[in-house]
Amino acid sequence: MADEMKIGAYICNGCGIGDRLDSGQLEMTATRDGKAAVCQQSDFLCSEAGVKMIQDDIDNEGVNHVVIAACSRRAKIEAFSFENVTLSRANLREGVIWVRPDEDDQRETTQEMADDYIRMACAESKYMKVPAASGQQEVNKNILIAGGGVSGMTAAIEASKAGYPCTIVEKTAALGGATAQLYKKIPTKAPYADPQDNGIAEMVATIEADSNITVCLNSTLTKTAGAPGRFEADISTESGSTETKSFGAIVQASGFTPYDANNLTEFSYSKSQDVITQAELEALAIAADGGAIKRPSDGKEVTNVMFIQCAGQRSKKEGHLEHCSGYCCSASIKQAMYFKDQNPDIDTTVLYSDLRTPGAGGENFYRSGQKKGIIFTKGIASEVVHSKNPIVKFKDLILDEEVEDEVDLVVLATGMVANAGEPTREQITIAENEAKEAGNEYTVSVESILNLDYRQGKDMPHMDNGFADSHFICFPYETQRTGMYAAGPTRRPMDIGQSMDDAMGAAMKAIAAAENAGLGKAAHPRVADLSFPTARLEGCTQCKRCTVECPFGAIDEDEKGFPQFNESRCRRCGTCMGACPVRVISFDNYSIDTVGQQLKAVDIPEEFDEKPRILVLACENDAYPALDMAAQNKMDYSAFTRVIPVRCLGSVSLSWITDSMNSGYDGIILMGCPSGDDYQCHFVKGSGTAQERMSKVADTLETLSLEPERVQTYEISITESDKVVKIINDMADTIEQIGMSPFKF
Amino acid sequence: MTDINTGMVEKYRNDFLKEVEANVEEGDWVKMCMQCGVCSGSCPLGSDWDHPPQELFMMIRAGKRDEVLQSTSMWMCTSCYNCIVRCPRELPITHIMHGLAHYATRLGIEPKNQPTRQFAQLFWDNLAKNGRVNELWLGVNLYFMNGFVNGIKVALGMAGIGLGMLKTGRLSLKELVGGHTVKDKKGFQAMIKKAQELEAARIDN
After folding, report:
1. What residues of chain A lie within 8 A of the CB of B64, using their CB?
2. Domains along chain A with CATH numbers
3. Is the peptide bond before A358 cis (omega within 30 degrees of 0)?
């Protein structure tokens, strides 16, 4: 690449751009204002000839900064991808002609819009660099799997098949986890009619025969440090010896603990031996081994059994689980079949309020249970009376009446509590404060699984109901700790079949993470992004905002409090850049300047021209696509709008807001993803952090005697194309009411 | 209580579901109901049933023998087949309703004064005689179903229509005596008799 910067601007006249805009004028803008050394037009830029024209200029003319003035940066990505140059896109199609009516009196403002987008793209191009390697890249194909249950074993088998050596760290003395304790499992194969062998012996045999898989039994992880591609894990055995091994990525398959049925005093669990949990019934079934199942109290052969679903779960009562554990309905059907298959005359009743049998075969399995004569009664149990034979009191929800039923045995379908390890430091602090307010003391009662050496805490963050982190809406496997993937019931409640599928997915993600780390590429959602954040440390004030606000724990601090970036933990959202008050953090191709210079490049007309300027900083993940979609649907918005895509609202620097106010913009709109509990932010906390930062902007505006309405933040989902248009047009109306900004010139 | 009813109670004790499975037409489908309620919601007369189909199925499973068999509910079914079309579990609900009604009648514990039941009985008696429906007598019997005075009133109310039908030849007074029959009346009656014997044998077992 030539050392000297040479901008090449390429203007497309296709898709109606040439008919609506004066391309000669655009070319002049690019060369005169944008300082493009080369500027060419094409009637069909994304065609083979058009692309070749650009490539020829790169090869022969020394063009190293390419500006493409055509469609949205989200279109024609394959065509416009060039090696070793920077690429800026002026969005003339979705950003200009498709959002403006084709009318003569609109031509002037439409042309101004297009000219500004060319200036902006050239300005951005000037401040972009081709991302260079960080030197931190390292390939390590070893995958660490925490947990040797069915999820962990599946992950190991699958990763090994793909050629990646695995190490399973299992706390107990044997592989198999909860599944090994089952007499039989819910069927995972068609016709999904009968319980299946639990399959653990086969899996263990496969693992033992596989030299690519190392199994550490009676072992725990006492420390996990590093980053994807270079994790260092201390594997300690019960006897006290510790071995340190390095890994490329981690799968956490730490499973679940059954809910403690002793909390269910109303069901007489601790009083009656004949009120048992599903797990205890498995033990009885194993003991019976196909013969008649005998109840614990007096060894009587069971002739009448009732299964109480949702025992201590799906309930807001103190000490109960709020979630549905998802597997217990199928498990009860399976266990009722233990009885029915042995003797069809045994009465088996499943007392449910909502029967849920997820998974491909769930419905077939339910039907098979009905065919075998299991009675399904829709009702809610209120009490189990302890007597010689337990008496179940319940309300029949269909017949609307209170019923009492005397049975030989009661089985409680208690749920799953995830083994997700410790909450994060932040979560612990919140819990401590809440406890203090209530006059209690909070102690972390669970053991850490990963024992991470991260400033954010020892394990992945906990999500709703204590399950390990996962972005359940958009990318279920991704967690807030890059290169670590939760699989199985530690991630969300699931049964064996689902856990195996889940583990397979997590193993594939782990492999991708290990490989990406070797290439210096980002993981989801900026897949394959080669840029990474760097800081001019001489300007750093050690305020630690970047380390605290990073949603992924990617930034450590050295002993002096300076940030240390772990490139392979980073997802390239830029939240650190937005957080930095002294603006020292940047990416090669995304920085304070690449956006700051764009907004300065916009031509701001004088006040009496009555042409206001509205700056839209739109998140590239949801809001920008929503704007593109509005354009595709030919919805119009104000010609005074100038949209700049940002990686995440979290990357928005307050300096951009003050700069644009100072240069005379009349209104600023920030569009990010929904934040909060049901967040859709692709970087978890970015939009939430931005909301918080922007809440303070109103005060700043007032000190400048500016109306606070001039800066507005919105949460946009990708489908809300009509909403984005309304927001922009409302802002235009607001400006008309409150008047133009007094800061022009 | 009839003898046959007592017999059935003895035979199945408290397992009403098994009794239904063994004796009611399509009764072995009852256990497959998943209580979604689509049948009840789809029934055009659903709001007038004491117990919509879904509830009847639950009552059968809960062993509510008398409530089910003495219920007027299944007699409300007009055979529109909406429920069959919509049932996600593909239960032949309409057939089960008629099966239940029929079984209750066999046991002699059906709701005697339910109008649909009364009409069904009149229709059957009329049909079984000659193998053809004698519309004149069916009408007369229907009018006088609720007593002589009421019958006269209904008949007078319908007189206009009746005269019109006579005039256009759609009703024949000849039907009052004898009426038309199937070709082989004896054979038809033998057939019905045999069928009844077969069914009685099935239920008695």
Report:
1. 399
2. 1-130 (3.40.50), 143-255+419-519 (3.50.50.60), 259-416 (3.50.50.60), 604-745 (3.40.50)
3. no
